[in-house]
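wait is this the right file?? whatever heres the structure
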């Protein structure tokens, strides 16, 4: 049973899915002055459900000292935040004119992911 599709069918009635572009982090190169410059794979597009964080998630982000404009994103496929052993940073999500950074993966399943995204620019 695909529970994600069932839940999305209900939630998208009041909060429609949005088309987003996803740039997966591939690590970094070293630029002028030895500064690390993030690198990303070519963008892919898909539909995501973007919602507010619940109280427990906000408390967790506060405990991690992650501040700013935060949202939860539900997306078919995988997303990743910082993975230090792999040398990758967080994936980027382009939502309209806004760029969001994946800062924490809350749930990771074989066919979908729930993550916290933080507004970077608009």
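ok assuming it is, sequence goes like this
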């Amino acid at each position: 049973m695909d529970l994600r599709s069932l839940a999305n069918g209900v939630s998208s009635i009041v909060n429609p899915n949005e088309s987003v572009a996803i740039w997966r982090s591939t690590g970094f190169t070293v630029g002028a002055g030895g500064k690390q410059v993030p690198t990303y794979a070519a963008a892919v597009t898909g539909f995501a459900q973007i919602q507010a964080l619940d109280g427990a998630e906000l408390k967790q982000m506060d405990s991690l000292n992650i501040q700013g404009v935060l949202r939860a994103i539900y997306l078919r496929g995988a997303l990743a935040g910082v993975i230090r052993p792999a040398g990758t940073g967080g994936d980027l999500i382009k939502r309209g004119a806004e760029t969001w950074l994946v800062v924490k993966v809350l749930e990771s399943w074989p066919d979908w992911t729930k993550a916290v995204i933080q507004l970077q620019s608009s």
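The mean pLDDT is 89. so i think its the right one actually
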